[in-house]
Every structure is written in C-alpha cells, then in structure tokens.
Design brief:
Layout lengths: L2 E6 L3 H4 L9 H5 L1 H14 L2 E7 L37 E4 L10 H4 L5 E7 L1 H14 L3 E10 L3 H13 L4 E2 L1
Parallel strand pairs: 1-2, 1-4, 2-3, 4-5, 5-6
Length: 171
C-alpha cells in the first residue's frame, strides 16, 4: 500500500506569533507531533507533500482574511522545525482552501492508496482538502493531535464532519 502525508499550511504566517494570520498556541502545539509524523513517513519511504498557501499581494481572499502567505515572503515559508533536506522539492502551492484547486495534487496522489493529513486550519484548508480526497475515494486519516484552528468550536465541528459525513478516519 502506497501512503502519503499531506502537511497543510504549516507556514510561518500561521504558526509563528508574529505571523500575519497566527493560528494561536494550538497551532504551535501541533508542531512536535507533525515533526514526528514527518520522520515516520520519511523512514517508511512514504510520499510527503507540503500543501502551502501561496498568494499574490492582491489576492481576493484578502477581502475575507488579512493578507498572508504572500509568495516569496518569509510568512509563506514552512516553519523551520518541519524542514528537512530536500523538503522544498515537495511543496505544492495553493491559492484557495482546497489543496486541489489549480494544483497538480491529483496527479501527485494518483498512485497513493492512503493519505494522512495534518496541519492548519482544521475547519478551512484541512477540511476542504479532506473533502476533496474523500470525493476521490481515497482512504484518509486525520490525526487529531496534528490539526488546529484559531476557532476551537469550528475545529471540533470540522473533525466531526470529516469523520461522520466524509468518512475520514480521525485518530
């Protein structure tokens, strides 16, 4: 069985306190668990893909959220704790909530049977990416200890939706 780990938006603008759209301490708290999952995946030879917000400075999303993760800025970089030699070869930039919108993620996951998803924000980019994976009949695992949001109620709701409506396994 071929497996992949999707690391969603573990970027400085979301995880660092000085970031443009800081996810809160709950976002920082998941970094060690995600680092552990990355290490496990690397040792197992699994595919690791960093799904990363990459916006232009005039993106329409900034009508709903403060400007964040602008391509080429420090805020759009993966947090140092999760970087490893060659990690940047595994980055898929996205402009919307789903990791599939205007990306080649479909092709990257074509031969993958099981996909674990970690990152932020549970109720936004994680949820919409998981929804797309489930619609493609992929086996999806979401690690509760490895997802977070600035909105705790929405975080819990999203986990429940992913499990009960979409069929993802919540561990």
């Amino acid at each position: 069985m071929r497996k992949a780990l999707l690391v969603v938006d573990m970027l400085k603008d979301f995880i660092n306190p000085e970031g443009a759209l800081f996810c809160g301490m709950q976002g920082q708290a998941i970094v060690p668990f995600i680092k552990e999952k990355i290490t496990e995946s690397r040792l197992a030879g699994d595919t690791i893909i960093f799904i990363c917000d990459r916006h232009e400075s005039d993106d329409v999303e900034f009508n709903r959220f403060p400007a964040h993760c602008i391509a080429g800025t420090v805020g759009a970089e993966v947090v140092e704790e999760l970087q490893f030699d060659g990690y940047d070869e595994n980055i898929t930039g996205k402009q919307r909530y789903s990791g599939f919108y205007n990306t080649d993620l479909d092709e990257q996951l074509e031969m993958i049977d099981e996909i674990a998803v970690v990152g932020v924000c549970t109720n936004i980019c994680v949820l919409f990416t998981v929804e797309e994976l489930c619609n493609r009949n992929k086996k999806v695992i979401v690690y509760r200890e490895a997802v977070a949001s600035f909105d705790i109620e929405a975080h819990e709701y999203a986990l429940k939706q992913m499990e009960t409506v979409l069929g993802a396994e919540i561990k």
